């Protein structure tokens, strides 16, 4: 006795598969160097803005100081992203959804 799966059920089973793939991504030496330069620039800019925010706070310009610190936080996030990208190679998880 053989069992047959209705075509529509088989179709749904096949085309709703989800698979997770790990891809290795490597940066070129030139891109790594550009990222390092950008990281250095961002670090200098962050330090400068922190100093400026401190001065604004001392002068009583609290809102301006808070705005500068918010900008520093954004620049820090960008810097951390660059640092993460600058690893010799890293793994990225990609989800592939096969749909009909």
Structural overview:
The protein is α+β, with helices and mostly antiparallel strands and 100 residues long. The chain has one domain. The protein has helices at residues 7-15, 29-58, 62-85; strands spanning 18-26, 89-97. A two-stranded antiparallel sheet has the order 1-2. Helix 2 runs antiparallel to helix 3. The protein is elongated and about 45 Å long.
The biggest beta sheet reads: 2 strands, antiparallel
Number of helices: 3
Number of strands: 2
Q: Rounded to an integer, what's the Rg over CA atoms?
A: 25 Å
Mean pLDDT: 75
String of helices and strands: HEHHE
Query: Residue ranges: pLDDT <50 for 5 or more in a row?
Result: 5-24, 91-96
Write down the domain tally.
1
Q: Structural class of the secondary structure composition?
A: alpha+beta
Q: Gap between N and C termini, in Å?
A: 31 Å
- Helical percent range? 55-70%
Shape: elongated
Strand line-up across the major sheet: 1-2
Key features of this structure:
100 residues; alpha+beta; two-stranded antiparallel ribbon; 3 helices; 2 strands; 18% strand; elongated
In terms of topology, how is this protein built?
Elements: H1 7-15, E1 18-26, H2 29-58, H3 62-85, E2 89-97
Antiparallel strand pairs: 1-2
Helix pairs in contact: 2-3
């Amino acid at each position: 006795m053989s069992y047959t799966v209705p075509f529509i059920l088989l179709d749904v089973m096949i085309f709703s598969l989800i698979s997770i793939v790990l891809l290795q991504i490597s940066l070129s030496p030139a891109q790594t160097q550009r990222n390092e330069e950008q990281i250095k620039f961002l670090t200098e800019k962050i330090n400068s803005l922190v100093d400026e925010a401190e001065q604004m706070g001392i002068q009583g310009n609290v809102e301006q100081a808070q705005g500068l610190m918010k900008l520093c936080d954004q620049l820090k996030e960008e810097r951390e992203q660059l640092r993460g990208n600058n690893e010799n190679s890293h793994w990225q998880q990609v989800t592939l959804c096969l749909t009909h």
